[in-house]
Recover the amino acids of this structure.
């Protein structure tokens, strides 16, 4: 597996609380992505980054923000968690030479009560 | 934007049979088509990919075919084994380099 980790791996939180998920890579890849996976919906892009401090929105970005202050770390924040954000969150990375090929982290399972 | 449709959503086969999963895409500019396998509780992992200048690609028991005119591509698994049981995702990407994923196919291989 590519050198990519996510923390925490599991989290239970309550509606209205802020939550931050961390993605850490040791590959020095420029591109990083956050996806959510829900039954029947496949993988949907939340936000992505093409460099330090350079981020952009994906198709399901409402309610989420991201930050990337270092190449190796990409943070996803749920400002005020809602039950609809209960999901499995995957981080992915890709290298500059083959941007389209993505390598996924192990995932974070989030339950919002 | 790109739209990727994947069928079937569930596929059940007997061990040793072949399995075929089909995807269609909408953006004629798409030129890269990867397939990912996700075992239960694990991360999606790339198993094979194809670019638009190639019509078919094989890797042991798996193959992918691409029909650019019809805008569809397929994953073929021959001599299926129980360890092939997983969810398979197709994807398509073009100028933006960011793939759009299909909704996934749950493949069940019965021993």
């Amino acid at each position: 597996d590519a050198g990519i980790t996510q923390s925490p791996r599991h989290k239970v939180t309550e509606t209205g609380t802020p939550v931050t998920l961390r993605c850490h890579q040791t590959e020095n890849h420029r591109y990083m992505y956050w996806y959510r996976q829900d039954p029947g919906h496949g993988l949907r892009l939340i936000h992505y980054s093409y460099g330090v401090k350079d981020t952009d929105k994906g198709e399901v970005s409402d309610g989420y923000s991201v930050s990337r202050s270092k190449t190796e770390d990409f943070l996803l924040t749920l400002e005020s968690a809602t039950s609809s954000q209960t999901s499995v969150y995957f981080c992915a990375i890709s290298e500059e030479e083959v941007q389209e090929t993505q390598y996924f982290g192990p995932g974070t399972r989030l339950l919002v009560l | 934007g790109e739209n990727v449709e994947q069928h079937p959503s569930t596929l059940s086969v007997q061990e040793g049979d072949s399995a075929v999963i089909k995807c269609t895409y909408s953006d004629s500019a798409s030129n890269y088509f990867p397939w990912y396998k996700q075992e239960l509780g694990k991360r999606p992992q790339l198993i094979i990919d194809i670019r638009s200048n190639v019509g078919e690609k094989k890797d042991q028991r798996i193959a992918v075919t691409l029909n650019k005119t019809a805008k569809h591509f397929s994953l073929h698994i021959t001599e299926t084994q129980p360890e092939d049981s997983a969810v398979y995702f197709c994807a398509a990407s073009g100028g933006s380099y960011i793939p759009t994923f299909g909704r996934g196919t749950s493949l069940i291989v019965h021993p």
In short: Chain A touches chain B through 22 residues (CB under 8 Å). The two ends of chain A are 32 Å apart (CA to CA).
